[in-house]
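Quick one, tokens below. Sequence please?
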């Protein structure tokens, strides 16, 4: 695992219900359990969807997440760990957005995904709110929340966070059309 002496603008956070922390090698089984499910992965990127195949791939994903953050402290993925279970429920992230043509306008996305056994508890909303607040404290002025137009559960999370719904628009980052929302500091 990558270890650094760098102080992250996204430190570990403990709320009354959750811990948000960097992924650890011992999380590989749960990462595999989440990212090997089509009902999760189908919402994360454009087709063809890649289902994680084995623990080696899960370990590599964890290592890549750490390396991305080391390279760019504003590119973070955090494990959402509910205190009631102690099991990783899913991921919340802030990541730079690159346009389909390869350009980067300084925009960052806020995103999340959970294992289906961890939905319905408000954990995604709580975790995304905490990470958004950290991003705003670190200097971000707004965060993009984009999703497939029919991803109603994620849209509900974004609206609970106070995001402004811009509707279904051409997507400059992933191509095609997506439902786009913007979360600004003043929305929190």
């Amino acid at each position: 695992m990558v270890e650094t002496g760098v102080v992250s603008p996204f430190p570990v956070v403990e709320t009354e219900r959750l811990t948000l922390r960097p992924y650890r090698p011992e999380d590989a089984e749960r990462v595999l359990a989440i990212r090997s499910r089509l009902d999760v992965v189908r919402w994360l990127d454009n087709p063809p969807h890649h289902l994680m195949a084995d623990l080696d791939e899960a370990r590599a994903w964890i290592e890549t997440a750490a390396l991305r953050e080391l390279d760019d402290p504003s590119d973070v993925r955090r494990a959402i760990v509910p205190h009631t279970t102690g099991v990783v429920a899913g991921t919340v992230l802030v990541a730079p957005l690159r346009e389909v043509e390869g350009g980067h306008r300084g925009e960052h996305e806020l995103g999340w995904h959970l294992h289906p056994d961890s939905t319905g508890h408000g954990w995604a909303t709580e975790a995304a709110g905490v990470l958004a607040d950290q991003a705003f404290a670190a200097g971000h002025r707004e965060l993009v929340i984009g999703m497939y137009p029919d991803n109603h559960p994620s849209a509900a999370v974004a609206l609970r966070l106070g995001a402004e719904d811009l509707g279904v628009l051409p997507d400059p980052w992933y191509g095609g059309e997506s439902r786009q929302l913007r979360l600004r500091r003043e929305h929190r």
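The longest helix spans residues 55-71. The radius of gyration is 16 Å.
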